[in-house]
Amino acid sequence: MQRQPLVIANWKMNGDRKLVTTMAEALREHAADYPAVQVVVCPPAVLLEAWQQAVFYDQIYLGAQDVNEHSHGAHTGEHSCSLLAEAGASFVLLGHSERRQWYGDSEPRIAAKVSQVLAQDNMTAVLCVGESAEQRQQQQTFAVVAAQLAAALGQVARCEQLVIAYEPIWAIGTGATASPEQAQEVHAMIRQWLTEKFGSAGREVRILYGGSVKADNAAALFAQTDIDGGLIGGASLAADQFVAICTAAQTRSS
Ligand code: PGA
Predict the structure, then answer these.
(1) Would residue 1 count as lying in a domain?
(2) CATH number, domain containing residue 204
(3) Catalytic positions, written as ranges
(4) Ligand 1 atom 1: residue of nearest CA
(5) Predicted confidence band at 1 (pLDDT cuts at 50, 70, 90)?
(6) Ligand 1 centroid from CA 130, angstroms
(7) E strands in the chain
(8) Tens of pLDDT along 94-150?
(9) Phi, psi angles (nearest 5°) of residue 24
(10) Which residue of 52, 65, 135, 171 sits 20 to 30 Å from the alpha carbon of 11, by its own alpha carbon?
(11) What lines the ligand 1 site, CB under 6 Å?
C-alpha cells in the first residue's frame, strides 16, 4: 500500500485574485514535476470560485479553511459544507491552532465540524493537531495530540475521508520547523493511534506535517516514513516556493 503524497496550501487571510492567477499558472507550468502528488489549495472562501475557474482543466483540488458545524440556518457570516462544496471545495481544514486559539474552536465544536464534513459526499476533513512550546517542554506532546485526536474523532467510525495535519504551534509561522526526527516521532504516534482506532484502514490515512515548511527543508521532512506531505502556510504564497515543495513531495512516490 502506498499513500499518495499530499501538499496543501493554507493561504489563511492572504492572497487576492492576482495571486490566484499567478499561482495557478505556476502550478500548471510545473505539473509534470510532481505527477504523483495531490495538490490542494485552501484560499479564503471568497476566492474559491476564482480558483475554480483558474484550474478548471488542472488536477488541483480546492479546500476551505474552516466550516460551520451546522448544515444551514441563521448563522450570520458562516459557511456550511454544502455551500463550500458548491464553490468547489472538496477538502476542509478543521481545528487549525489559530482557530482553536482565537476563534472559539473548542473540542466539541471541532468534533461537530468533523461530522459535518464526513457526512458530505466527496469531502475530506483535514484535522489539525499539535502542542504548544510549553506543552512540549513539559513532555506532554504525545498526551496533548492523543487527546485532540480522541476529542475530534471519538465518534467517527470510518477514516476514508480523513487527513491529519500535525502542526506544532511553536513551529507555525515562526521559522522554527520541527526537525524531521521530531516530526516523525509524533507522526508515528499518530499512525499508531489511527490503527488502534480504525484497524488496517488507519494505515492509509495521510498524515501531513505543518509549521514553517519551506522549499529548503521540505525534502528532509518528506523523507520520513510517516510524513505523507505538508500543510503549507507562508511558503504557499510564493509560487516558486510552493512549486518546489510540491516537487519535493514527488520523491515519496519513487
Ligand atoms: P506556516 O503555517 O507554514 O506559515 O508555518 C502553517 C499553517 O499554519 O498551516
Answers:
(1) no
(2) 3.20.20.70
(3) 96, 167
(4) 233
(5) low
(6) 12
(7) 6-10, 38-42, 60-64, 89-94, 124-129, 162-166, 206-210, 229-232
(8) 999 999 999 999 999 999 999 999 999 999 999 999 999 999 999 999 999 999 999
(9) -60, -40
(10) 135
(11) 10, 167, 172-173, 210-213, 231-235
